[in-house]
Structures are given as C-alpha cells and as structure tokens.
Amino acid sequence: MQDIRTKIAGVSVDIRACGLLRNGDDYLVSTENDGTQTLHVGAIKVGETTEDAVVREFFEETALQVIPNRLLALIENHFCINNQPYQQLLFVYDVHLSDPTKRDPKSEDGCTSQWLPREQVTQLRPAILNELVHQPFSTSPK
Fold first, then answer.
1. SS3 helix, strand, coil % of the chain, rounded to 5?
2. Is it the case that residue 5 has pLDDT exceeding 80?
3. Is 90 helix (H, G, I), strand (E, B) or coil?
C-alpha cells in the first residue's frame, strides 16, 4: 500500500499517526540519529485507518504490539526541510501494550527507542507533543 502523501502548489502534504505509550511514569520515545526526539510515528497508507497505522508503525519500529485506547489529539504541523514547506496532519493516540510483560523495544537503523521518565520528555517534535505528555490524563485500556 502507498503512503498518503502528495504535493500541492509546491507544498508536501501528508497524514501521519503516532502513539503515546506510557508505562508507569515512563514514556517510550524515539530518538533519531540527528538527535530529534518524537513519539513512534508513521505515514498512513491508502485504505488504512489511523488506529491501524499506529499499531503497524509501533510493530515495525519497535517490535512491540500496542492497542490504541483513544485519540488524544489531531495536530496540524507546518514546517520546512531544506527550504521545502510541509503541511502535516498528525493523529496522536493513547496506546497500551497488548502484553505488559513485553516492554523492551528493538531499535532500528536511524532511530533508537527508549523509555524516559516524564520529566525528561521535553524535546519532542513537534513541540506540542511535550504538552500532551505533561497533561494529566487517564490511560485505561479499552
């Protein structure tokens, strides 16, 4: 399946989904080789739901199986890379592990997954994700 990405009037546009995975007061964060921190995120494929994309991306990036609890936010993200404008819609889900005993993520080339205490989660991109991490909310499985 093809990712939902296009270019309109010189602006790259895509739709992505990510998951906020918490274990106690620790959050699973992805750190790219350039130091950028984010939640595990990926493009939605044609015909795929945003929830299915979160489950697939988590498994592809970490080998962890997650279950989406609920949609926390829809973020409109505008940015530039190499003077190329991007407009992105990011669906953010609260997720939990399908098996809480299996919480050790694998890391893939170009990115490292690690559990960080909430107080150390301050450098996520887009920056609004930091606010989500630090807002009180309940994470109860469906």
1. 15, 50, 35
2. yes
3. strand
Confidence of residue 135 (pLDDT cuts 50, 70, 90): confident
14 neighbors 43 (Cβ within 8 angstroms): yes
- Give the CA-trace dihedral at 106, 27, 95, 139, to 10 degrees: 150
Tokens for 63, please give them: 């080998």
The parent domain of residue 126 ranges over: 5-134
Contact 52, 46 (CB under 8 A): no
Domain count, the chain: 1
CATH number for the domain spanning 85: value is 3.90.79.10
- Contact assessment for residue 84 and residue 12, using Cβ atoms and an 8 Å cutoff: yes
Q: What is the pTM of this model?
A: 0.91
Does 118 have pLDDT greater than 60? yes
